[in-house]
Amino acid sequence: MAKGKSTIIVDEHGNINIKEEGFVGTACAERTAALLKGLGASKGEETKKPEFFRHDHVGTRSRV
After folding, report:
1. Largest CB tally within 10 Å, which of 13, 31, 42, 45?
2. CB burial class (10 A; 0-12, 13-18, 19+) of residue 23?
3. What residue spans of 1-64 are helical by DSSP H?
4. How far is 47 from 28, CA to CA, in rounded Å?
5. Model-level pTM?
């Protein structure tokens, strides 16, 4: 799993706000889903940062 930081904020009404930092691509969405499942909460409104639309470039280059 990608390294990053998750901040969970619960307001006085019980609303949960999860802020993800340091993730690229869908890693933040996967982390948020796991946190919500662990908290027993349902998915609500979602705002995607520009990092969500970037992808980790993992692979190798070969020269023939």
Report:
1. 31
2. buried
3. 27-39
4. 11
5. 0.64
